[in-house]
């Protein structure tokens, strides 16, 4: 047992890539400081490093599940998770993730993977642009919803329940294909359906929902051979301390500058993917 563990550690250190560790450190730091989902940052970085799109998405999904797990514990301690909303989201997202993964596997088998990777790149580009909009205009959209008597603020309880399941289903499809959407897009959608809930509770609820969704989607990709576990380990070596450092410097830079800068990065990455 000791010899096998020692051998495993030796193999890991032999395959340690400082490029990926630094990438994980940087993304983890930004996530810890801003709360922006790591998928919208990590997946484009992996594609830039030449990782195949399906492998980038699959690896990033498991990366997200692990890094966000600690966030659920923190938000639960602060009573920032509405588990009834989380359950309704999961009722839509988990079946959607399973169906999407089955569809991707079938499509990959028939297209030898090329067309499937092209679809992922295109979907990723769209998701990045939508996420940039969500980052920039989330608060403005919430304020508009409160100022105007729009349909979202007049929904009955039953309509909210149905809308939550539909949101979950959409997130399940988007996240399974792109690894993006469980954070900024999901939170913005919940803002509209539950405008009277505190922001901290909506964020905590969406993080609690993102963990099982990204875990199941990631395991589905892993079963299809779309996860590079050594790459995942390298990213985690950097990102876990990065998140800790970022969370301790939160507020050091004003959102007035951070959010536009992040949105600009995502727009650049999204347009680049769409034009390829």
Number of domains: 1
Q: Given the structure, what is the number of helices?
A: 11
Care to count the β-strands?
A: 0
- Main sheet properties: none
Shape: globular
Order of helices and strands: HHHHHHHHHHH
Q: Give the class from helix and strand content and strand pairing.
A: mainly alpha
Mean pLDDT: 81
Helix content: over 70%
- The rounded distance between the terminal residues' Cα atoms is 48 Å
Could you tell me the strand content as a percent range? under 5%
Q: Regions with pLDDT < 50 over 5+ consecutive residues?
A: none
Quaternary organisation of the protein chains: single chain
Report Rg.
19 Å
Describe the structure concisely for a colleague:
The chain has 276 residues and is mostly helical. Helices cover 82% and strands 0% of the residues.
Protein described:
The protein has eleven helices and no strands. It has one domain (19-275). With 276 residues, the chain is mostly helical. The radius of gyration is 19 Å and the shape is globular. α2 packs parallel to α10, α4 (53-77) packs parallel to α10 and α8 crosses α9 (199-223).
